[in-house]
Every structure is written in structure tokens, then in C-alpha cells.
Amino acid sequence: xxxxxxxxxxVLACGEVRDYDEAAWHDAIVRVQxxxxxxxxxxxxxxxxxxxxxxxxxxxxxxVLRNPGPGLVTLIAISRNRTDSFSPQGPSYRQEHGTEPEAxxxxxx
Length: 109
Fold this sequence. Notes:
This protein is 8% helix and 40% strand.
């Protein structure tokens, strides 16, 4: 995997319920591996996603993530490293190169 990205996994055992933590899913694309994961919203609505589903869990009004079973379900999250050049914490062009990009040096007519 490229140095600009990181991979993390959350494994839910059969019947396991995990509280939704929005920060844990920030900036991540999530793939479901295994049987199904069930997402429950704060209003109580539930939706299941099976093996191979690709999700974005950031910013959703979720309460819990649940494995309805049987078997394990793994949520594989791929996100950018916080220090890559596109993240707010990453170095700016000026810091990396000691100069302004050419487009920023030119003035518009």
C-alpha cells in the first residue's frame, strides 16, 4: 500500500455490537469482508450490507455497528495518512519546496 494511505481493520464476532465512533471512520473508505454488517441509525432504522459492499461511514447518524451473524465480519478501512500532502496537517507546497507554486506567483489580468 502506498505510504500516503493507511489500512485498519475492525473485526466483529457473531452477535457483537460496537458503538459508532465517527472519528474512527473519518476520511475512510470501508469494505465489508465476511457475512454482513448491520448499521443502526440514531432513529433505530437498520440496514445490512454484505460481503464486498463499499461504504463511507463518516458523518452518518449511526448509533451502532452490529454483526447479525453467523461468522465473523471484518470492516477494512483505507484512509489517507494524516501527514500526506493533501491533508490539513500535511506540509504545504511552500514548506516542501521553499517557494510558491508558479500558478500562485502569477497575477490574473
